[in-house]
Amino acid sequence: MAKKSLYHLLVAFFMLSIPFLGSSQPVTLLIEMGDKYAEANDHQSAIGVYKAILEDKDPNNIAAQYKIAESYRAILDYEMAEGYYLKVKRRNDGRFILAAYYYPLMKKLNGDYQEALESFEEFMLLLKEKDQHEDPRYRHYYEQARIEREGTLIALNETTNTQPEHQFTILPKPVNSEDMDSAPATFTNDSTIVISSGRKGGKGSLTSAFGGSYNDLYRFSKTGSGWSEVKTRDDFDIVNEKFDDAAGMFNTDRTKFYFTRCVEASANVVNCFVYVSKLVKGEWSEPIKLNTNINQSGSNSRQACVTITGDSLFFCSDRAGGIGGYDIYLSTKFGDENWGPAQHLGSQINTPFTESSPFYHLTGKLYFSSEGHRGFGGFDIYLADGSSFEKAEIYNIGAPFNSNKDDMFFFMGQHKGYISSNRKGGVGKMDIYSFNITTERDMITEIESDEAIAGRNSLFSDDYDFDSDNDEMLSEIISHLMASNVSNIEMALTNEQLSFYNSLSKDDQERIDRIVNARVRNLSQNDLQAIRDEDEFFYSHMSSDDKRHVDNLVSAYVREDGLGLSIGIDQQEQDFYEDLSVGDKEKVDMIIASRMKQAHDFTYPMETYDKISSLNKA
């Protein structure tokens, strides 16, 4: 609190000094002061400083215009942010080129999908014209503009479809307030819920980035006429302290409560960790921080979800080694709260942006929120379904659950489900909504359609529109990488293929990756076995000369496996391969990869493919 009071005193000093200083220096100092507020996540105070510059000193100060837009975006005031981003965008200043990205993003979040669609395309074209679309400083935004544009197309299509009802409705007061209300989870079936709230009067009395109090955890029970706060003697309030206490979930028998607690880790540094409180003799115990596999020093862990068996924990963390702001991890328990090493869920689920609020349902489906996949707004809710997290297909669960704003904290109880959203029509900065569950299977069937596929790495309509027009080489590389993925083997490209691949634009390289990953994800075990059988049948009916060419190719790949990024092929074998049709090349690639996999599966080193063949015949 002392730190924040000092900021206010300094700002007040500068405000009083401005009339007497008379130069541009006070504006510079005020911008620095606003920046300090923003860095401390006190965006309301930052907005006050930037606004003073624009209203009293320099109405056209582009730095203040951009920074105030950033702070409005941080507190989810997308309408105000849109106006300031537009002012900066119109000035076409290369220092603030990202205003041309955030403006359509705000348009999308404010529900103006058509304008957003056109402006995202304008931003991508702008970067291409300036030859900055492959610049490391902007590539991240160029890629995301493509994702946001495609999400906008999905949203436009969704608005033309008939939406399921689910009796989707906002919960009344006192569950929702004028402040931030989120992260609902049931306690007693559907009749009692726990939520996170930044409402006034809690222990979290310090000011958060949104201008309200830090979050505390509250319980509410369903009554005949509505909801009422639960006040009992079980000391549940022990979970609340002065900083954020939020996003909690109970184990199956309601004897443990896992939640996020933020603490002052060092001077002026607050970190968030996952804690557990246990119900002992009718009272909740002093919360204990989970071990370092969950809570790494120097990073944040939050939004834990415990599975129905109680032995697995999903959570979000910004620890080193992730690929985004916050990624989703999974840990398995060995004994009482002895959590094992956290497993990153991979790049099919996690994105370069932020993932949040995982919910693992008893049907074996993972629901989560993300701002990095194709969505209707900022954060959307998604379903991951597949044989593994690394190969899961990602579905946008659609309306009414997702809107043009931020939708998070999907939770299903027995007959009721809940989400949190800051969509239009709410009573606070974020509100809790409920919906009826018919059956889990009906819900999943409703979601899992081709139109709902929305993963960042999933195929989209223009993924086959390559910049390169060399269709033959593109097909070769896709076939080659497909064979590598299916057989789970590193299969080097030929010298010619690697040279061609390296000459491709980053867009084309990413298109190839999406096509390969999507095709592999869609293959079941039965499909894989059918491919193997078909390839062996194809090989068995080859002429002796063609078999010899294939055997020589396999031998070359096995012999040079791991020796370099590319592989040299004898001209005779190269000519044989080039004369094959696209379909036959795919079969030969699969045969090579399969034989390489056989070589790797032996427990002693294999020198040549011929040696493998002789051993198999013995």
List keywords for this structure.
single chain, 618 residues, alpha+beta, five-stranded antiparallel β-sheet, four-stranded antiparallel β-sheet, 17 helices, globular, disordered N terminus
Tell me what the structure shows.
The chain is an alpha+beta fold and 618 residues long. It is 39% helix and 20% strand. Strands 6, 7, 8, 9 and 10 form a five-stranded antiparallel β-sheet that branches. Strands 1-21-20-19 form a four-stranded antiparallel β-sheet, with no helix packed on it. The chain has a four-stranded antiparallel β-sheet with strand order 2-3-4-5, with no helix packed on it. The longest helix has 20 residues, at 2-21. The chain is globular. Residues 1-23, 603-609 and 611-618 have low confidence and may be disordered.
Task: List the topology elements.
Blueprint: H1 2-21, H2 25-39, H3 43-57, H4 62-74, H5 78-90, H6 99-109, H7 113-129, H8 139-158, E1 169-170, E2 181-188, E3 192-197, E4 216-222, E5 227-229, E6 245-250, E7 256-266, E8 269-280, E9 283-284, E10 288-289, E11 301-306, E12 312-317, E13 327-332, E14 343-344, E15 355-360, E16 366-370, E17 380-385, E18 393-396, E19 407-412, E20 416-421, E21 431-436, H9 440-447, H10 471-487, E22 493-494, H11 495-503, H12 506-521, H13 525-540, H14 544-560, E23 566-567, H15 571-578, H16 582-601, H17 609-617
Parallel strand pairs: 22-23
Antiparallel strand pairs: 1-21, 2-3, 3-4, 4-5, 6-7, 7-8, 8-9, 8-10, 11-12, 12-13, 13-14, 15-16, 16-17, 17-18, 19-20, 20-21
Helix pairs in contact: 1-2, 1-3, 2-3, 3-4, 4-5, 5-6, 6-7, 7-8, 10-12, 10-16, 13-16, 14-15, 14-16
